[in-house]
Design goal:
Length: about 100
């Protein structure tokens, strides 16, 4: 992973950040700055995206720990993947 940097390890699982995630944060911050006209609006937008990714990361880490502990497929990991697919399908559908 050329564009990834390791932030640390949590419960034996490597935690990496990809360069494109930083681009995403920059884009969200800039778009909120332009729309809201203030640094507070930009920070609110970036904070919201970070909160979303933190929740998803925590949920995935919990599911991975459960799966490693029980040696069975995790219901939560499967549910999260299905929800992510559904969200992506909704997000990228063409609407008129």
């Amino acid at each position: 992973m050329k564009w990834s940097w390791k932030l640390g390890t949590v419960a034996g699982i490597g935690l990496y950040v990809h360069g494109t995630f930083l681009l995403l944060l920059g884009w969200v911050g800039l778009s909120h700055w332009i729309a809201g006209g203030s640094a507070a609006a930009a920070l609110a937008g970036v904070g919201f995206v970070l909160a979303l990714f933190a929740c998803a990361g925590r949920s995935s880490a919990t599911a991975a720990r459960r799966a490693a502990r029980s040696w069975e497929p995790s219901f939560h990991l499967t549910r999260n993947l299905r929800a992510a697919r559904a969200a992506a399908a909704w997000l990228f559908t063409v609407r008129e």
